[in-house]
Amino acid sequence: MEPSSSPSSKDLQRIYRSLRLIRRAEEEVARIYPSDKIKSPVHLSIGQESVAVGVCDMLDKKDAVSGTYRGHATYLAKGGSLKGMIAEMYGKDTGCARGKGGSMHLIEANANVLGSSAVVGTTIPIAMGWALAAKKRKTGAVIAAFLGDGATEEGAFYESLNFASLHKLPILFVCENNGYAIHTPLSKRWATQHLCQRVASYDIPTFRIEDGDVFSIRNVTAWAVDAMRKGEGPVFMECLIYRWREHVGPGDDYHIGYRQKNELQPWMETDQVEKVGKMLDAETRKKIDKAVEKEIAEAIDFAEKSPVPKPRALMEYVYAD
Fold first, then answer.
1. What integer pLDDT is reported at residue 318 of this predicted model?
2. pLDDT tens digit string along 96-134?
3. Are 50 and 18 contacting, i.e. CB atoms less than 8 angstroms apart?
4. Residue 265: how many other CB atoms lie within 10 Å
5. What is the pLDDT of residue 320?
6. What Rg, from alpha-carbon coordinates, does the chain have?
7. Domain locations in the chain?
8. What is the DSSP string of 28-45?
9. Can you give the pLDDT at residue 2?
10. pLDDT value at residue 79
11. What pLDDT shows up at residue 80?
């Protein structure tokens, strides 16, 4: 794979803004959560932002993403409404799923963010179906299907790999490998950690990015999207990353004992939000930070003031008209 050109100043500003927005939005979610204003469980992707941002920065509006229940980053990186996301967490009628789905079921049709699911691995075959439809309609669009390392243990994952490769579907499988399925490490789940080799047996090009570098992820995605638009079939990317917070909830969980705090330190030292931020001049970064804080404050205010759904909403959109 040939390396892509260095990102321009405009690229850096866009990438940093996306990283910063996701980080700060989730930090605010963590701050608000103990108040019980947020009506659903939250799975934060703090520390994992670079995967969604690196991938989505190379997608067009016509392209789609399929996220996991840890999907705030994917939703926002692809252009989902922050107001819609926060209102959804509050259970408000103005939420992106009318307050019915909560944090784990974000959707934004206008940005081609397919609805995420709380059931591990279920969005993978859905994303594959979208890719099949795109190919049959000859739209030239591609889809990025995000999944955790735990989802690779589901049968649907391997069935989807086989079908996607057989039919040369335009789907980028993006594994956010944070090393744990809830509290169980890879060493207790996988006989070998050669995930890319397993996927390659389906005749799918594979890439493994070990440091969470947003530009490496972006570079691989650019190559993959170009190949998929040419009809060359699916691509698989394994991104090693680290979840800074607990599996579900606003705090940390090192006291439980299934992982150690010293695992976090190397990832904090290579934090992509800070890395990209330092590539900007101080004034530009300050301006972006200020705009991000304004957007988050407005989204929270919007959620606070939005109405709750009326009782009749329970029976709306249950069946197709």
1. 84
2. 999 999 999 999 999 999 989 999 999 999 999 999 999
3. no
4. 9
5. 83
6. 19
7. 9-305
8. HHHHHGGGT-S-S-----
9. 56
10. 98
11. 98
pLDDT digits (tens, 9 = 90+) for 188-213: 999 999 999 999 999 999 999 999 99
The phi and psi torsions of 127 (rounded to 5 degrees) equal -65, -35
Distance in angstroms (rounded) separating the CA atoms of residues 139 and 135: 7
Read out DSSP for 253-291? -GGGSSS-GGGTHHHHHT-HHHHHHTTS-HHHHHHHHHH
The candidate with the shortest Cα–Cα distance to 106, out of 118, 124, 93, 120, is: 118
Q: From CA 151, how far away is CA 177, in angstroms rounded?
A: 10
Element (H, E) at 65: strand 64-66
> Which pair of structure tokens corresponds to residue 67?
């996220």
Looking at the chain, the number of H-run helices and the number of E-run strands are 11, 8
DSSP state string for 179-245: SEETTEEGGGT-S---HHHHHHTTS--EEEESS--HHHHHHHHHHHHHHHHTT---EEEEEE----S
List, in order, residues 6 or more apart from 15 with CB less than 8 Å away: 7, 53, 54, 57, 214, 218, 276
Q: Name the CATH architecture for the domain at 9-305.
A: 3-Layer(aba) Sandwich (3.40)
CA distance 197 to 206: 8
Q: Which residue has the tokens 């330092």?
A: 278
CB proximity list for 187: less than 8 A, separation 6 or greater: none
pLDDT of residue 55: 98
Selection from 82, 52, 111 nearest residue 273 by Cα: 52
Take residue 277 and report the two structure tokens written for it: 């931020």
Q: Which residue ranges of the chain lie beneath pLDDT 70?
A: 1-5
